[in-house]
Amino acid sequence: MKMRPSLLVVIILVSFLLIPQAAAGESKVVYVGKIEGTITEYTVDQFESYIRTAEENNANALIITLNTPGGLGDSMMKIISLIQNSTVPVIVYVYPKGAIAASAGTYIAMGSHLIAMAPGTSIGACEPILGYSSNGSIITAPAKIKNFYAAYMKSLAEMSGRNETAAVKFVTEDLSLTPEEALKAGVIEVVANDIGDLLKKAHGMKTKVPVAGKGYVTLDLEGAKIRELNPSLSYQIVSFLSNPAVSYLLLTVGMLGLVIGFLTPGWHVPETLGAILLVLGIVGMGYFGYNAAGLILIVLGMIFFIAEALTPTFGMFTIAGLVSFVMGGLILFGKGGGNVYLVSEDTFSLLRIAIIVTGVVLALFFLFGMAAVVRAHRRKPKTGREEMVGLIGKVTEDLDPEGMVKVRGELWKAVSKDGTTIKVGETVRVVGMDGLTLIVEKSEKGGE
Questions:
Q1: Which residues are catalytic?
Q2: Residue ranges making up the domain that contains 150
Q3: Which residue of 15, 260, 399, 422 is most buried, as measured by CB atoms within 10 A?
């Protein structure tokens, strides 16, 4: 059956019209990254990784699920700068149920292009503090610092058109709001049960903050494919370490280990564990990024390896060096979001293997070196009689029964063991000593 030319033309035209629409539908993508725990320099690196991934893949939006009690002010400001310089709209979503965006988390939300909250969450309580006293009470910040952060919060609210009065009260009165209260007060834009619900409700909304290079963007999220960005291995490690309770415990136990080690020299276990825990506690304070933290642990590992070579500890320093070296390498090269790292996923997998293999090789090298040193120390020194017995020499003056022999390039007075005559040039073996006189016998082995 032949197809009419007109019908064929219509089919081709319809196909050309449908293909771009299908491609356009498939091109929509929204990335979802998770941030939990204390805001530190590591959080800055993780945010940067998430945003970079979304930008490189031309995402329609990046959703950050946030659950944090707060953290470092400097790190918070860096994150806000990253968001406001992002070419992809960043939606901060306080999620899951029970999550909070307190202190630094509230500032980050206020600096984002859109804020959403899940039921059962809260936002606010931003009064700055300097830390905690020895008895656990909060050390409040002076008025100058409090006024600065209040002004900073107000500027974020002004820029986004959100409620300035409520924003300032977050800082000055430690105000906290539920999702419904925050929505009614004009602090947030969406209350959503989950990511899917958020996409439906946020579709068609205009960003509250201009997107870098694009201005105010109307979100096109309908039918977008969701791609999750799982926290990197580095972030998982440092998130655990940066928990205030964990980092404080590590610092305390680490210092205690060093003190015990200095009081009990020669054992090496307390100071070794103390050094590792102390460094991990410092890393957990969050003042370093991934690069600095990784390098610190690698350097510590090398110090342990060298210490093992100089002061054999039967493998204690070697094991400590291996742990520090591998952990440092994983932190240094394991940053990124989801399947995106400083390098490709496949390359990182190879790097991870290389890091572990290198650490093991270094550990084995120093272990064998240590074993050789230990054997040398255990070997009894041979001096005098013990050193000479068994050596081979040559007769330089007939032994009849006394004469001269040459052993190890030195001339010695010698006497034949059984009184027999031994001629010049014959080989003898030392079997004993009488003062400085060697007692020798004929030998078939060659010698001096």
A1: 103, 144
A2: 28-229
A3: 399
